[in-house]
Amino acid sequence: MTSAIPACDTEGVHALLERGRALATPVLRAAVGRLAAPMDTTAAYHFGWIDAEGRPTDGDSGKAVRPALALLSAEAAGAAPQTGVPGAVAVELVHNFSLLHDDLMDGDEQRRHRDTVWKVHGPAQAILVGDALFALANEVLLELGSAEAARATRRLTTATRKLIDGQAQDISFEHRERVTVEECLEMEGNKTGALLACASSIGAVLGGADDRTADALENYGYHLGLAFQAVDDLLGIWGDPEATGKQTWSDLRQRKKSLPVVAALAAGGPASERLARILAADAKSESETAGFDEEEFATRAALIEEAGGREWTSQEARRQHTTAIEALDRVDIPPAVRAQLTALADFVVVRKR
């Protein structure tokens, strides 16, 4: 049986997240400020720095897990946390490039409790700003001009390619009747695991760590990413919209073959078979789910839970959490840093948003 997750050190984790924001945000703002108008203000809106009318705001700019990981990974290599700031900013730029494009491709109208960029500024701006953020990410690293920066950029570009592979896989699954659990985990490892793996190692690389240390931290981040995505998949069906900032049943509305759905279909039994029939009919239909009422989505969610998809996914988050922590045993890192990496992993699997 998978071991239970210890109580999360919420106060300590929030301090790590705030440190990541405090050190990375000024550099992130400066990078975004290089963009030509109107991309600069469109990006600022996406990051929550201004509202739709261009007025300064204290909007939600995300959880900041990736910047926190980048700073901790620098400390894991014995460097100052500031060494990881360019890596933190680069990873955050790539992450937000993916969000801008994903929101458009998925038709998501809300992110962080307000309208998405494509909804406010149009699809063309969402695409252009996303592309610009990806280019900026590489600039931020390469302008350091060091051998470590070149190594870090290679890791970032590889992670970005895998992230894009994962998004392509995710889209291709939407109109398939069946997706295996193995296919789903591969997709989520690419879409989420690769960039968290990069965040967990890029600061160490910038701090001069050898490949053995960087690879161990990357392995931690990869499995942390799978745990993170498993929790996201649960929130995508059963999450509280007040906490997530998305619609109820958001993943079901998009026909996503997320882990709870795939696990439920693989389970067998009456609920699984009924769910399979419903999704098979969806796959043959060109129409979207917009005409479905709330009861339809509630029925699907209930079938997924009855078939065991919710419980399996919850257990998978814990399995991946355990594997992530075990990866840290393969390398010598300061005990305090190891404790902080563990606390961040705990936070990922108990979060509500």
UniProtKB/TrEMBL annotation:
The answer, when asked if Protein transport is one of the entry's keywords, is no
> Sorted alphabetically, which keywords does the UniProt record give?
Magnesium, Metal-binding, Transferase
Q: To which protein family does this belong?
A: Belongs to the FPP/GGPP synthase family.
Fetch the InterPro entries from UniProt: Isoprenoid_synthase_dom_sf, Polyprenyl_synt, Polyprenyl_synt_CS
- Is this entry keyworded Kinase? no
What CDD domains does the entry give? Trans_IPPS_HT
The protein's matches in Pfam families, at most eight in alphabetical order, are given as: polyprenyl_synt (PF00348)
Q: What is this protein called?
A: Polyprenyl synthetase family protein
